[in-house]
Amino acid sequence: MTALKTDDFMAMKGAGYYSQATIGAKHVMDNAAGLILDALERRPLADDGTDFTMTDMGCADGGTSIDMVGRVLSAVRAKCPSRPIRMVYTDLPRNDFSQVFKNVHGLTGLETYAKSISDLYVFASATSFHRQIVPAGSLDLGHSATASHYITEVPMPIENHVHMVGATGATRDAWRAKGAVDWENFLLNRTRELKPGGFLALFNFGIDEEGRYLGSTGGVSMFDTFDRIWREMAAEGTITEAEVLATNFPQVYRTVEEFRAPLDDPGSPVYQAGLRAEHVETRVVRCPFAVDFERHGDAAKFARAYIPTLRSWSEPVFLAGLSPERTVEERAEIVDAYFGRYEAEVARAPHGHAMDYVHCYMICRKV
Amino acid sequence: MTALKTDDFMAMKGAGYYSQATIGAKHVMDNAAGLILDALERRPLADDGTDFTMTDMGCADGGTSIDMVGRVLSAVRAKCPSRPIRMVYTDLPRNDFSQVFKNVHGLTGLETYAKSISDLYVFASATSFHRQIVPAGSLDLGHSATASHYITEVPMPIENHVHMVGATGATRDAWRAKGAVDWENFLLNRTRELKPGGFLALFNFGIDEEGRYLGSTGGVSMFDTFDRIWREMAAEGTITEAEVLATNFPQVYRTVEEFRAPLDDPGSPVYQAGLRAEHVETRVVRCPFAVDFERHGDAAKFARAYIPTLRSWSEPVFLAGLSPERTVEERAEIVDAYFGRYEAEVARAPHGHAMDYVHCYMICRKV
After folding, report:
1. Residue A154 to residue B113: CA distance in whole angstroms
2. Looking at the partner chain, which of B96, B127, B132 has a beta carbon nearest the beta carbon of A98?
3. Which end of chain B is more exposed for a tag (fewer CB within 10 A), N or C?
4. CATH number, domain A6-216+248-291+354-366, options 3.40.50.300, 3.40.50.150, 3.90.199.10, 1.20.1250.20
């Protein structure tokens, strides 16, 4: 999840907040590391002294992927003792790259692979994954988890919802079309970067074969709750209708078919550039806070732990929706009240709330 | 200058403080860009489609080098239209790499080269220049300005001064020996990184043929003033003698002979690894604030502008010298008082104060 400036939260909430709030994203990656290790196992990797380059696109603070990256690069090192490894962490310029380096180089409490893998060079890049990040033909393994749903810009406001999963008709079509354009462009840039034989491991938020998506599976829909409380605050006059209309998650959740389309259609530029789907599956990973709640049964405790995991990535969207004529303090107060209200709802009626992760896991190879 | 966490200062002082305070360092690089362009001109650069990699080691916020890097990379692009360019900014993990990316990618007021050079890939690394930063044999041009005087650790306290330029006898010998070890190690790591035919452009703080060094040339020695005021505060009981002893700039200023030694001695590991001096000269670049003062003659204005350029890189050293048993607030107050006293001295008797830059400029090639 890429939209958060970690240090803002660290400063506001104290160290550890971000890692704790994104523990579910870590589970997603840890659980799917096997898909990458299998993909590595399937291919002959020459121990020929050339660079092996891996990217982690949309890395945030690098903490959620650190164990997965360590397992993957250890496997590469075991297969190819002679190859220098370049590990490139990418996110937007405002990301806290200092925190990435502190995590990876072992200056925080996190366990890190960096000291146990020889001939390893760690880099950061702030080039958007909507553009080419590394030179053409230099990439062995491009990885991105829970990031590529961010689109370059909002195609049009959504009149009836804050997220495209609630959009209908022509609005939904416009968002889906924007999602398709950005997805094709994302894959084309990656295909340019890849060496022949190289591969992508993309764990994307999406809509699975049963129509499920993030936070929709517990019984109470997270995005519908986001939308309803925001509109309640408009109805009460705390915010304006124009602000509600301006609040749109700049994200498209794609269906499995939409993910596959450019890879399966021999006429698509992605297919023609040589990218193929090697493995596609969807999985639901349960919300760790809802699982904890089943065990401890304390609704207030659940609400306190649950809201930060939503807030860690959604808060910037609500702040951005508010009028720039409001002071920063005023905007912060409104958003505090908003999440306070969401927390109170969960504490009052906890059952059904859960941010279960719904991902489409793809391994793609360049022929 | 590498020791400052930019955003601490930005937060304390407001945006622009750092760039303004380091304008002299920018002059040093702008004035010496010709040395790098000449070195490029001297060598045949094949337009063969392979990567061209440049590093800027100890980059701080990337702002001081941005014009120089733009001129150099534009020259590379003109000579070699087919070669992807990797530009790698390096500093310590605590550096504000987000600010580096914002500057280079054009998100601040700074003019940047990034959008006018095609097939360019910008990276950051937080690997210390005392270690290998990029894979062996992958570097075309290693650049570092005003950074390599930082040593890995203080060899012993200096009993009579805060900086090794004031040390004598066995203490000075110990610091010079530490400087020699780190310099040889720095050059060995760079030689491993360089391609054959690749080169280094190192603009190092040092001691020139006439014994001059940073801030010693105006009449009033900057480092002696640093030392005297700190001891005055000890004599008055504001700080302790132990704290004065614990205050040591972790820097060695090397003489031209010391810079050249590993490059000229056929028995040295650096020479044997294939590194040679191609051009060595020293230059004094005048303190821009002292030059301004000659024009405007306003002592208080000079003092206000001058102290930040000292403080931007020296403050962490004084903070680190203070006892960890003091609160953070107490330490900040003491250091505020310290620089306030320095400023009052300059305002009262401005003549002779000047942080003239004394650098040794070296171009080294790998055979």
Report:
1. 29
2. B96
3. C
4. 3.40.50.150
